[in-house]
Design goal:
The structure holds two protein chains of two kinds. Chain A is α/β, with parallel strands linked by helices. Chain A folds into two domains: about 210 residues, P-loop containing nucleotide triphosphate hydrolases (Rossmann fold); about 60 residues, Alpha-Beta Plaits (2-Layer Sandwich), CATH 3.30.70.20. Chain A is about 40% helix and about 25% strand. Chain A has a nine-stranded mixed β-sheet with strand order 3-4-5-2-6-1-7-8-9, sandwiched between helices. Chain A starts with a strand and ends with a helix. By secondary structure, chain B is α/β, with parallel strands linked by helices. Chain B has two domains: about 220 residues, Rossmann fold, CATH 3.40.50; about 45 residues, 2-Layer Sandwich (Alpha-Beta Plaits). Chain B contains eleven helices and eleven strands. Chain B is elongated and about 70 Å long. The chains are: A alpha/beta, B alpha/beta. Chains A and B meet through α4, α6, α7 and α9 of A and α4, α6, α7 and α9 of B.
């Protein structure tokens, strides 16, 4: 069993569009949406059945008014500026360290666990999909990402699948790191914009930091050919393969409007390049 | 007044809108631009600032003096993040799990734990023309993006006009970039992905109690469901930017929309007047 994660650094370069097509091309696999902030893959894979599970995240302090003497010790030790002058805890700022809980001389603080989101195991026409929805303004996205990956791993093991294919979040921080540690291959989808290049370089550094092998796919490559060459030069210097170059084409948007992976909607250049990407992924993992 | 530009979904055009808004207002009034997308800060590519200051962001992590440590395990007991463990009388610290709360150091009965700074990012500030420019940058391999955003926000002038370019998503880094704003502009695109993530972002701004309006980018790309959603939810659509490959090409070269197509300046000034009317 091999695990592939699709990343991009910059958002909106086409990760989910490409992952949905890989779901159509790969036969023996489980799909996992590791973007728990904004999970979109299910919109293209159309779950038929779905089991919902609760995700209990980190803890938050709560101060009981009747026990609080307003001595101010909690406010002194809190480094997250989470306790107001009127001794109320702001749950958005509280990181659940429990320093206030330990320091309070009148035991007025309790630590409560909050329901921070849900995760789902779904059956789709393309096989199983694991995804999640983090409650808005919640923390612990990294933990939830680790959880959905773990569940996908269990399904793959149980059913003897060859691949786990993950749709990663944008950025380079906590949820991204959680989505890629221990994966066998990272596929970075970039676009030839200055932002795309800047973010590509940072996400490649993250992969290198965690020693994950990388290949690159340039989406909308004909948007700016000068920038495209810059990406190619950069990848060559880094010894990174460019596995495919997908042209800018309205069929991608048309397929999205129809709710279909683009490889099932059109047989043109875009689909050809995505198929090539899948072949390169398989080659890199064998 | 602080205006945060957020989106839910990545790549909908936050930075395009934020930089064009700043450029449209910057020659008429003083303002600060804060790039709070510290994982992938991009606004500098369009606004080309000159940086004059650089401040490293640290979090405090524990350092154990083995000569004083008795291996009692109190530090591990109070650590909520499992960032410190005691194995066979020896203390192990896992800096990547540490949130820097300081509890271990405070509660150590032997005063064996001091705190040392660990670099997690940097805040750079300077100017882009008349615009005060600040950006945060998270170091590669680090997790704590919100901590860098907090440091960026310390550079903001009280009472002045501030435009914040927020990160994508709806969790802690975005919350940090939006929670103190007077207005949150949500940039979306009229596709099923755009709609799905816009609804999540709206839920977030409501939870934070920040007034919201929408910019529809790449208008014409999809269907009318985003418009219908906004109408139903009573969220004003403040600007529509059409799907235009020339706009995409300008962005690809790092040129703001209003510098590449100056006729857009009036539209962005109009956008700002609408925001002012809603806030006041």
């Amino acid at each position: 069993m091999r695990e592939i994660v699709i990343l991009s650094g910059k958002g909106g370069t086409g990760k989910t569009t490409i992952v949905a097509s890989l779901a159509s091309l790969a036969k023996s696999k489980v799909m996992v949406d590791s973007d728990v902030d904004a999970a979109d893959l299910y919109l293209l894979l159309h779950p038929v059945t779905e089991d919902s599970h609760q995700f209990w995240g980190g803890k938050t302090a709560v101060i009981a008014k009747d026990r609080c003497t307003q001595c101010g010790r909690c406010r002194e030790v809190c480094r997250f500026d989470a306790i107001s002058e009127r001794f109320r805890v702001n749950p958005v700022s509280c990181e659940g360290c429990a320093f206030c809980y330990y320091i309070c001389p009148t035991d007025a603080v309790t630590m409560t666990t909050a329901l921070s989101g849900h995760w789902f195991t779904a059956e789709t026409g393309y096989g199983p999909l694991v995804y999640a929805r983090l409650g808005v303004a919640e923390e612990n996205s990294g933990k939830l990402v680790a959880l959905v990956r773990e569940q996908a791993g269990l399904i793959a093991k149980e059913r003897g699948f060859d691949y786990i294919i993950g749709d990663g979040p944008p950025g380079i921080g906590c949820p991204v790191i959680s989505s890629l540690t221990g994966a066998d291959l990272a596929v970075i989808v970039t676009e030839p914009t200055l932002s795309g290049i800047h973010d590509l370089e940072r996400v490649i550094e993250v992969c290198q930091h965690f020693t994950i092998p990388v290949i690159v796919c340039i989406n909308k490559y004909d948007l700016n050919e000068t920038n495209c060459r810059q990406i190619e030069d950069y990848c060559r210097r880094q010894g990174i393969e460019i596995a495919s170059r997908i042209p800018f084409d309205n069929v991608v948007i048309e397929a999205l409007a129809k709710g279909l992976p683009v490889v099932e909607y059109s047989q043109g250049r875009v689909s050809y390049e995505i198929k090539r990407l899948w072949q390169e992924i398989v080659k890199n993992l064998s | 007044m602080i205006v945060s530009i957020a989106s839910g979904k990545g790549g909908t055009g936050k930075t395009l809108v934020a930089t064009s808004l700043a450029r449209s207002l910057g020659d008429k009034q003083s303002l600060q631009f804060a790039d709070c997308d510290v994982e992938e800060p991009n606004a500098h590519l369009l606004l080309q600032p000159t940086f004059s200051q650089r401040k490293v962001v640290f979090i405090l992590i524990p350092r154990v003096d083995e000569a004083k440590c008795t291996g009692c395990g109190k530090c591990a007991e109070v650590c909520a993040y499992k960032a410190i463990a005691v194995v066979r009388g020896k203390v192990l610290v896992f800096p990547e799990l540490c949130h820097g709360c300081g509890a271990c150091s405070y509660f150590c009965p032997e005063q064996a734990i001091s705190e040392v700074g660990k670099e997690i990012g940097v805040v750079e500030s300077g100017n882009s023309g008349k615009i005060g420019f600040i950006q945060g940058k998270l170091n590669v391999g680090e997790l704590a993006a919100p901590r860098v955003i907090v440091e960026v926000k310390k550079h903001l002038n009280q009472g002045g006009l501030v435009i914040i370019d927020a990160p994508p998503g709806t969790s802690c880094p975005v919350v940090e970039a939006v929670k103190d704003a007077d207005f949150c502009l949500l940039v979306t695109e009229p596709t099923s992905f755009g709609l799905n993530d816009l609804a999540l972002a709206v839920e977030m701004t409501r939870k934070l109690d920040v007034p919201t309006g929408v910019v529809i980018n790449r208008n014409g790309i999809g269907d009318h469901r985003v418009e219908e959603y906004c109408l139903k939810e009573g969220i004003p659509i403040l600007l529509r930017i059409p799907l235009d490959i020339e706009i995409a090409r300008l962005y690809s070269r790092g040129v703001t929309l209003v510098d590449g197509m100056p006729q857009w300046k009036e539209a962005f000034r109009g956008l700002f007047s609408k925001i002012e009317r809603i806030v006041n």
